[in-house]
UniProtKB/TrEMBL annotation:
DNA repair enzyme that has both DNA N-glycosylase activity and AP-lyase activity. The DNA N-glycosylase activity releases various damaged pyrimidines from DNA by cleaving the N-glycosidic bond, leaving an AP (apurinic/apyrimidinic) site. The AP-lyase activity cleaves the phosphodiester bond 3' to the AP site by a beta-elimination, leaving a 3'-terminal unsaturated sugar and a product with a terminal 5'-phosphate. Pfam families: EndIII_4Fe-2S, HHH, HhH-GPD. PANTHER family: A/G-SPECIFIC ADENINE GLYCOSYLASE/ENDONUCLEASE III, ENDONUCLEASE III. SUPFAM superfamilies: DNA-glycosylase (SSF48150). This is Endonuclease III. Residues 62-209 form the HhH-GPD domain. Keywords: 4Fe-4S, DNA damage, DNA repair, DNA-binding, Endonuclease, Glycosidase, Hydrolase, Iron, Iron-sulfur, Lyase, Metal-binding, Nuclease. Gene3D superfamilies: Helix-hairpin-Helix base-excision DNA repair enzymes (C-terminal) (1.10.1670.10), Hypothetical protein, domain 2 (1.10.340.30). Belongs to the Nth/MutY family.
Length: 273
């Protein structure tokens, strides 16, 4: 590392926010993070393909321990084969297991989907309910899945605390909570309720494309000045820019003030986690 680079990193580290912030200061910084994320990821959305609340519930259950891309490869045939809750309730277990096998843990997921269909038929006339209390009482649906369904199928604001969301809000020191429900409430208190669903999408987008678990692209991140964890990953822009992922990787480089030509082709074509 050159002496100039060391001085730059030292300045960023000394001025980094987080450690001695007031509650008001944290809320203001959180809102700034939200605004920058909105500018950085204008394409943020739910990445599970669906056309109904039932399809979204099924896709979200299948997404456990696998990628959204893999789920989206499996669900077209699944949705045609099982178009209603009654169809899931009456499904042949072996046939369903084969259809969803590529998503992993297919036996447990099959069990959840069949029981979900049965519960919907028995309790909700075959429809996905639009209330948190009803959703979390269904097989295979926890609070995280319920928030995905409410936010994207019913337009009810909710915060989705997945692994990406947990990692980023901890790196940003927006909360020290580790329980997902407590994280949801702590972060939710920093933002307007109407922004919760899109905030979740944008944070998850950022976690998948920029702020990776093992090596975040710190030197190519639009949130560098707002992040107390700056320096966790490479700070040299020419190194960090190669860690960006996804079809908009070059747009992300531009947003961070870096020459997009430095983004390798493999970064643009890389599968986001």
């Amino acid at each position: 590392m050159t002496s100039a680079r060391r001085r730059t990193l030292a300045v960023v580290t000394r001025s980094s926010p987080g450690a001695s912030e007031t509650d008001l200061g944290r809320k203001r910084r959180a809102r700034r993070i939200g605004r920058v994320l909105a500018e950085t990821h204008p394409d943020a959305h739910c990445e599970l393909d669906h056309s109904s609340a039932l399809e979204l519930a099924v896709a979200t259950i299948l997404s456990a321990q696998t990628t959204d891309k893999r789920v989206n490869e499996v669900t077209p045939k699944l949705f045609v084969r099982y178009p209603t809750a009654a169809a899931y309730a009456a499904a042949d277990r072996g046939e369903m297991e084969e259809l969803i096998r590529p998503t992993g843990f297919y036996r447990n997921k099959t069990d959840s989907l069949i029981k979900l269909g049965q519960a919907l038929v028995e309790r909700h006339e075959g429809r996905i309910p639009g209330r948190m209390a009803d959703l979390v009482a269904l097989p295979g649906i926890g609070r995280k899945t319920a928030n995905v369904i409410l936010g994207n199928a019913f337009d009810v604001p909710g915060i989705t605390v997945d692994t990406h969301f947990q990692r980023l809000v901890h790196r940003w020191r927006l909360t020290s909570e580790t329980d997902p429900v407590k994280i949801e409430h702590a972060v939710g208190a920093l933002y307007e309720k109407r922004d919760w669903t899109m905030l979740s999408h944008r944070v998850i987008f950022h976690g998948r494309r920029v702020c990776h678990a093992r090596k975040p692209a710190c030197g190519a991140c639009t949130l560098a000045k707002l992040c107390p964890s700056y320096g966790t990953g490479p700070t040299d822009p020419t190194v960090a820019v190669k860690l960006l992922k996804g079809p908009r990787a070059r747009d992300l480089a531009v947003a961070a003030g870096i020459d997009p030509q430095l983004v390798p082709v493999q970064a643009v074509t890389a599968e986001v986690p």
